[in-house]
């Protein structure tokens, strides 16, 4: 027992050195870590995660390494473990989620549980870890906000967790998400439930019947997009961009509400530039992935054009910028570049015949606005030989 405790302490030291700012110390520690057998790694990493006396950064490092180990080397390590060891891993993970007091570590342990489940769905879609499903159902109905959060986080991370039982549990899944999206007392539960619902939709993008069945969850997702944006959280908005990109048909029954919300967020200068650009990205992406659907809502598209034009003239007053030969990295995230890229993409997506009249209608108006004259003023300073380069918006979808 003493020898084991000593080894564990050495392992903690190793975990600490893996985070060392000194390259040599870190490289040496990585080499030592790589020589440890897989089963031994799992044992020590699990102990570190479950050790209440261990420093938070050590537990965090252990959680990251265990998830990475299951992700990259599952087939090499896990099947070779004894049945008893496999059971210990499953039990310890679920126990850790229930008793961990640090939200950060708890979230990382949920990631490990999701990763393990992902690997325990066999070729026929059977989930070889039925206890995790029971844990999910018990947690989502628990009085503990932490446990409800954990259940949603696991489901968000791995929406395929039900395997071939998904159809059987369809109503239960839907009820679980609706119930959590209506949790008035806990905004973080509503946000996480909306992200989980979006993740489930995305993982079933080609299942038309399922998308139709879950269509009535979209208003709740849109509400969570709106709420979370004003809490400085754009995670649900990013999920909406992904849906527009991958499963645009899901938005069809509530397309007008989706577009109106994105238009409102895009126009709100109290939000960050990135949030406003993401809201615009939903509309622009739909012009590329569902042009026919969007052409039925030209009135809303017409309202988005002045937003793009306003972004294009949203230039920071910087004397050096006009003389610069190349754009800085920051410039590619600017409203000016995002607005220009969006207008270009929506014109390509919906066609110039639709967009050009909308642009012409607003240009004259804008030219009378003194603020819109700023680019013309700046152009006097630009060297004729090096016009400002244009580049597509690099915003990640």
Describe the structure.
By secondary structure, the protein is mostly helical. Helices cover about 70% and strands about 0% of the residues. It has helices at about 1-20, 25-35, 40-50, 55-75, 85-100, 105-120, 130-140, 145-155, 170-180, 185-205, 210-215, 220-230, 235-245, 255-265, 275-290, 290-295, 300-310, 320-325, 335-350, 350-365, 375-380. Helix 1 (about 1-20) packs across helix 4 (about 55-75) and helix 3 (about 40-50) packs parallel to helix 5. The protein is globular and about 80 Å long. It starts with a helix and ends in an 18-residue tail after the last helix. InterPro entries: ARM-like, ARM-type_fold, Importin_beta, Importin_rep_4, TPR_IPO4/5. This is Karyopherin (importin) beta 3. Its main location: cytoplasm.
